[in-house]
Predict the structure of Junctional adhesion molecule A.
Amino acid sequence: MKRPGQRHLLLLFTAATLCCPALGGGSVYTSEKEVKVDENQPATLSCYYSGFSSPRPASYQGRVVFSQTGISFHSVTRKDTGIYTCMVTENGGEDYGEISVHLLVLVPPSKPSVNIPSSGTIGHRVVLTCSEENGSPPPQYQWFRDGVLMPEDPKKSRVFTNSSYTINSKTGELVFNPLSAYDTGEYSCQVYNGVGTAMRSEAIRLEAAELNVGGIVAAVIVTLILLGLLVFGVWFAYSQGYFNRTSKGSTSKKVIYSQPSARSDGDFRQTSSFLV
């Protein structure tokens, strides 16, 4: 959920129990500094002033009615949640007063989504997350294992005393540090913000498993065997002369010439030769 924004509106807001003094001697009041309204319902933000002659109201996208006692929404949406400031001015802004009202539009939470691993290694840190985006105000988060509510302090419950975990009720994070064999089970998350009914996610099973040392050793052995076979294959290829044959086949031919030796004119034999 986004945090409420600050909306500065030049408004008129009814009779008050809270007030804010204004510069120049005027005062601005409100009967409620926080207004909570269900979504799609009308809402009124009150503002009352004294010491001003004629304050000026401003429009709000045609959905708001301004009066001498405040402003009224025909129908509010979750986007209207925020802090509204009533400002009354005159004399070119030399005299003014203001008061803020927090409008909180109430929206029940939707079904939360969870991220739960199917398995975790005993002795390691494992994180489960839960999130919900629509509720206003932001919901509180709870976790269940096998349908049983998990307390924030596991040591205070006989069912969870052998577990070691922390729950963040504001962010929905469940952290096992470390995971134990007792933590195997079906986990679900529930959200509730005081509006409508609580909503719970589907249950997903988490298996707490021992570290597979045998599998790791087997993988190492297989890797070493494959490496040994590779080395043997290279050695065998060298011993059979495969690499040498390749080298000989790629050697370029050489041409050798010999100069003729001095002979008599009567010698009719070949006087020069070459070898390829």
